[in-house]
Amino acid sequence: MNVVTDAYLSDYRRRIKSISQRFLLIGIQIIDIERINCKILGSSNRMYTLEIVKSEFAPFVYTSCNCPDCTIRKVTCKHMYWFGTKQLGVSHPNLWTVEIIELFIMNNTRFHVQFATGRNETCPICLEPINYHQEHTICCTMVCQNSVHSMCWRRYHFSSFSDKCVVCRSKSMPSIF
Questions:
Q1: Which residues contact 120 (CB under 8 A, 6 or more apart)?
Q2: Bridge partner residues of 39 (DSSP)
Q3: What is the pTM of this model?
Q4: Which listed residue, of 23, 32, 175, 176, carries a Cα 20 to 30 Å from 103's Cα?
């Protein structure tokens, strides 16, 4: 095989891993209007930081992750593909525009101010659909009544040591399993 084919296959494998492995969105920090840091818990229980920086001179954004694929191999990592697919609706970071990021910032800021109450269809941690008939869930009992997968909550709780609801931030989730 040649170098181009190897690079293509390697990129293809990372894209497949981004949709087949389970990642958790631990936190989103909007630093300012120009920069976003996202904490992502990888499938091997390691915490990674995905940084997205807007450029006011270009229509696209700059992305980086502190995982080995991005820092050592200098390639687009599976965490970027996962975040793009689940949060932005555009999988490849080269296609993320300033407009997409501004819309994400606007929606994310509003999400924390005005959250939905009641039964949610998507786990706010892993961003996968919740099947209430087949999966164990944990529900915020005080404020928003939103649910998360119990497995996601366990991983989130042990990585962040937080017992606050990931949607409304009230202290109403179980802290010990």
A1: 130, 146, 147, 167
A2: 27, 49
A3: 0.69
A4: 23
**φ/ψ of residue 155, rounded to 5:** -65, -45
Angle at the Cα of 7 from the Cα atoms of 4 and 12, rounded to 5 degrees: 125
98, 113, 128 - which closes a domain: 113
Backbone phi and psi for residue 62, each to the nearest 5 degrees, phi listed first: -105, 135
157: alpha, beta or left, given left = phi > 0 and alpha = psi -120 to 50?
Answer: alpha
For residues 80 and 141, membership in a common domain is answered with no
Give the pLDDT confidence of 83-122 residue by residue, as tens digits. 999 989 999 998 998 888 888 887 776 444 444 556 788 8
Residues 6+ apart with CB under 8 A from 168: 115, 140, 143, 144, 146
In this structure, the answer to whether residues 96 and 30 fall within a common structural domain is yes
Nearest C-alpha neighbor of 154 from the set 167, 169, 137, 171: 137
For 93, phi then psi, to 5°, come to -60, -25
